[in-house]
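Structure ticket #2291
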Amino acid sequence: MSEKAIPDEARPALNAKARLDKLDNVEDVDAGKIATNIMHFARVLRSAGLPVGPGKVIEGIKAVETIGIDNREDFYWALHAVFVNRRDQREIFDQAFHIFWRNPKLLERMASLVLPFLCRSRGPATSRGDEPTPC
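Resolution: structure written out below.
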């Protein structure tokens, strides 16, 4: 495709996509899968109302490449520094991060909160001889 065929409005997006494609081929961090996941995470943030564009995605990938993925807290704060611009965006980012990147401790905590409720809702054994499952 010739340069003249590309409208001026589309050039920044095409340039950003080309840079993202280059970053996606990085073998340093899990064969580039992390770059794709950061892109999908950015889409989640955008759908939740945060102003996230292709430039922010590239910055997020570069930040994670810089700090690595060995420490979850560093990973969180690297992405937070890129995607959060205002105080009111913090909670949205925090919830989206923990759901998208699936914090096992958060899932365990949620399960522990739900399990006692489920056990209480089963009630005592019925006359058919059914016994409630122990919690």
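Closing remark: The two ends are 64 Å apart (CA to CA).
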